[in-house]
Amino acid sequence: MSASATNPPPPPELSHLRLERPAAGVALLVLDQPDKRNAMSEEMTASWVAAIDHLAADPTLRVLVVTGEGRAFTSGGDLSWLASEPDASVDELRARMLPFYRAWLSVRRLEVPTIAAVNGPAIGAGLCLALACDIRYAARGARMGVPFTSLGIHPGMAGTYLLPEVVGPAASRDLFLTGRLVDADEALALGLVSRVLEPEDFLAGVLHTATQVAATAPIASRLTKVALQRPHASLEAALEWEALAQPVTLATADLQEGIAAAQQKRSPLFTGR
């Protein structure tokens, strides 16, 4: 087996962003500008794109965790950047915003499961980043919201698509139109996050879950993510997809390994074949 099949490629140089490998198959991206509450600076945005491109080309990747350094997940778009061109035309501003949105939403093109570890405030575009991930866990005390209108701005970064997809239209109207923030426990009740963990054990708990995800069968995991990320138009459409995707996994060596492991009462060792 070649080295490229067993080892991740060398990471790119990153600014205001860290890429760590806490366990086999697990990547951890840390938004790293705590003095600005991990605001999405131009440097961080460029690094994010480089990191996602790097991870997308990594055959060893099984799961990605995204979190923030310090006390915040991210406060969202850099306000000084947003207000830096008061005389710009609508077309000029649109030409700035679309690449920004698409840069951060590029996480959705990863084929592996992605987990947002919301360690602290996730505000505006910051919450949209968490919504772009497949799973969201929050530290108790973390606050989340989309207070765009409170700043005099329309929601962005596909928030009007992502938030209703997760919490439904009624809760989305409440959060968008009031601009209010919710704490982790209310976010759990709304379905905005899946679990709330205590701050002192937060990242360790999320990474433990990530290692469990990384240990699942890669082909089955990726196909399941595709099925869940693109909701089926009907029951029949779901059946047609599953009648194609499930046989793909039935033909893998990983299925035989999974069955053997269950019969032998041991943990499976999946290879993605």
Question: Care to describe what's here?
Answer:
One of its GO terms (biological process) is fatty acid beta-oxidation. Belongs to the enoyl-CoA hydratase/isomerase family. Keywords: Lyase. It catalyses: a 4-saturated-(3S)-3-hydroxyacyl-CoA = a (3E)-enoyl-CoA + H2O; a (3S)-3-hydroxyacyl-CoA = a (2E)-enoyl-CoA + H2O. The longest helix is centred in the middle third of the chain and has 16 residues. The protein folds into 2 domains: 212 residues, 2-enoyl-CoA Hydratase, Chain A, domain 1; 46 residues. It starts with a helix and ends in a 10-residue tail after the last helix. It is 46% helix and 15% strand. The N terminus is likely disordered. By secondary structure, it is an alpha/beta fold.
Topology:
Elements: H1 3-6, E1 17-23, E2 26-31, H2 42-56, E3 63-68, H3 79-82, H4 90-105, E4 114-118, E5 122-123, H5 125-132, E6 135-139, E7 143-145, H6 159-167, H7 169-178, E8 181-183, H8 184-190, E9 195-197, H9 202-214, H10 218-229, H11 235-250, H12 253-263
Parallel strand pairs: 2-3, 3-4, 4-6, 5-7, 6-9
Antiparallel strand pairs: 1-2, 7-8
Helix pairs in contact: 5-6, 6-7, 10-11
Task: Describe, in short, the structure shown.
Helices cover 46% and strands 15% of the residues.
Number of domains: 2
**Order of strands in the sheet with the most strands?**
1-2-3-4-6-9
Q: What percent of residues adopt helix (DSSP H or I)? A: 40-55%
Q: What is the name of the CATH superfamily of the largest domain? A: 2-enoyl-CoA Hydratase, Chain A, domain 1
- The counted number of beta strands is 9
Mean pLDDT: 92
* Main sheet: strands, sense, barrel: 6 strands, mixed
What structural class is derived from the secondary structure elements? alpha/beta
> How many angstroms separate the termini?
13 Å
CATH topology of the largest domain: 2-enoyl-CoA Hydratase, Chain A, domain 1
- How would you describe the shape? globular
Catalytic activity: a 4-saturated-(3S)-3-hydroxyacyl-CoA = a (3E)-enoyl-CoA + H2O; a (3S)-3-hydroxyacyl-CoA = a (2E)-enoyl-CoA + H2O
GO molecular function, one term: enoyl-CoA hydratase activity
InterPro entries: ClpP/crotonase-like_dom_sf, Enoyl-CoA_hyd/isom_CS, Enoyl-CoA_hydra/iso, Enoyl-CoA_hydra_C
Family: Belongs to the enoyl-CoA hydratase/isomerase family.
